[in-house]
Amino acid sequence: MNTLLWIRVGDGGDYQSFDGLDDALDYLNELSVGNVLDWVDHGQGVGFTTPNYHGSDFISCFWGDNDGNFLAALDDDEQCTLKAGLEEAYI
Predict the structure, then answer these.
(1) Is the pTM above the cut of 0.85?
(2) Which domain holds residue 46?
(3) Residues 57, 69, 43: CA angle, nearest 5 degrees
(4) How do the pLDDT tens digits run along the chain, 91 residues long?
(5) What are phi and psi of 88, to 5 degrees?
C-alpha cells in the first residue's frame, strides 16, 4: 500500500496528494497559506490553521492511502518540518 500526504486548503478546496512534505510545502507556499497558528486534531478533521485559513476553513493535512482514507496525522518531527517550511503570507 502506498502512503500519501493528503492536503485540502480550506473548505472549498479539493484534496491533493503528495509523496512527501517537500512537494506539499511547495504547493502550500504557492498558495500563500501562511504560517501555522495551531494544529487541528478533532471532530472537524486533522491539519492546521494559518492566518489565512482558520476556524472551519482550516487546512486538512494527513497521511492516507491511495484513496485518501486517513491513516495517520503528522508526527512531531513532520509538524516541525512543515511549520519551518511555510512562508509568512497574508492575503
Answers:
(1) yes
(2) 4-85
(3) 45
(4) 689 999 999 988 899 999 999 999 999 999 999 999 999 997 778 999 999 899 889 999 999 999 999 999 999 999 999 999 999 876 6
(5) -65, 130
